[in-house]
Please model this.
Amino acid sequence: MHALVLVVLTMTKPPVAWTDRAGWPSPVSSPKDFDRASRAEQLVFVEALSALPGGSLVAAEVGLKHGDVGALEAWTQQRRAVVLENFQRAMGTCTGDELLCPVKAPASFEVLVTQATPMLESLPDTHRAWRTEARRFHALYVRELARLAMLSSRVSSEVALLDASEVTGERFSDRQFLLTFDDGPTGVGGETDALLPVLASQGQHAVFFTVGDAMHARKTVKKGLYDGHCLASHGASHQSHVTSAPVAGRLDAWNAELGAIANPLRWFRPPYGQRTLAQVKALSKQGITTMLWNIDSQDWQAPKDTRLVQGRVLTLMLLWRRGVVLFHDVHPVARAVLPGLVSEAGSGAQWVDCRGLGQSF
Ligand SMILES: [Zn+2]
Model:
């Protein structure tokens, strides 16, 4: 009985981390307010990251029989450096009596670890509900990422880059975010068409990673459908470009076809984030950059209450402070979430226009 339970436990993928931000007691819509909330989220992430158990234990926790411990360690080191830098950035608007502003910026991740819990426990009681919820969220979220990291030597993903030419948004300037939408277009009058006016109303200029099959199913893309946005490639068919050689083989033809409209085609995003170094390098030679992401909305498996998706994305924006946000235009969630998200982030975030993007971010 015990053995059976253990097998079931070790094969279960952990749940996606959603969160309700209602417990955070102040807005995040100015740079100063954004930074205060950003420091708070980072401190809870620091707690969660430093509390992760050793390699084989965490593998079992995240549903893997065999996890790559070396890859987890490399990922952990990289996250430590990023979150330390982010905390220092988020202290940029600190004044003497501000919450979560240590007298001196922590000089190392180890110092930040020793400061995290005392600082969080020193918050006024008005933050109690948030703190409990944030600890629950980050314990789940850090395991989502750890799982991807431990799989990265077998299944490539966005958490481990294969080549310096790949972009995730982590080299954007502080506070800069780019919206991206995968898997479309839908049929005429579908979700893609419903999303575009929402983006226009929010002043957004996003990247659409389109699939050849979906584009052909729509028959004609009316001229101007994607005006103000950027068209990019998500492959000829929505299948892994690692496990399906025929699909990978059709990529160049689809990119050439799309290039006639996108002119020039600048970005490719592999389905499921799965790609090989050879593919990335070959595309790079053609001037096509592989664009991954660092803020995954998980909108395709969203709960009914879309406030939880908004909570997840905003929390990750506060945590990572810059980056590429992944949504899908074949689902209704993004258009439900975006107006609230853009308004809640206010001037704490700067949304990037895809049309002015360079090649390295
Ligand atoms: Zn996709």
Q: What stands out?
A: Residues 26-151 form one domain. Confidence is low (pLDDT under 50) at residues 1-10. The two ends are 51 Å apart (CA to CA).
